[in-house]
Write a structure and sequence with these properties.
Largest sheet: 2 strands, antiparallel
Order of helices and strands: HEEHHHHH
CATH superfamily of one domain: ATPase, nucleotide binding domain
Radius of gyration: 18 Å
Distance between the termini: 40 Å
Strand content: 15-25%
Length: 115
């Protein structure tokens, strides 16, 4: 998890695991390119819920005005790139903190429901 976060803003991260096997410590470095290669299937799968949401809403991606990313993994440059390409180069809205977006919307919905 720490390496994933580091690779969101750096091109290389260290991975250290104390006593991984029979008391032997593990240490390695991983590049962002290698991380993206290892996770390529997972990254491609991130588009499936987006496509499903558009299909369920009977909307075309060209009718989307603003793309707001939610959740910590949306900080990963490869995910941002895939989404930007999916939406035909549309600039992603990165001004909203992805960790706070869901909580903010939940608070707004609670206020609406409570009158």
């Amino acid at each position: 998890e720490r390496a994933k976060r580091t690779l969101s803003s750096s091109t290389e991260a260290s991975i250290e695991i104390d006593a991984l096997y029979e008391g032997i410590d593990f240490y390695t470095k991983v590049s962002r390119a290698r991380f993206e290669e290892l996770c390529s299937d997972l990254f491609r799968n991130t588009l499936q819920p987006v496509e499903k949401a558009l299909n369920d809403a009977k909307m075309d991606k060209s009718s989307i005005h603003d793309v707001v990313l939610v959740g910590g993994s949306t900080r990963i440059p490869k995910i941002q790139s895939l989404l930007q390409n999916f939406f035909s180069g549309k600039q992603l809205n990165l001004s909203i903190n992805p960790d706070e977006a869901v909580a903010y919307r939940a608070a707004v919905q609670a206020a609406i429901l409570s009158g």
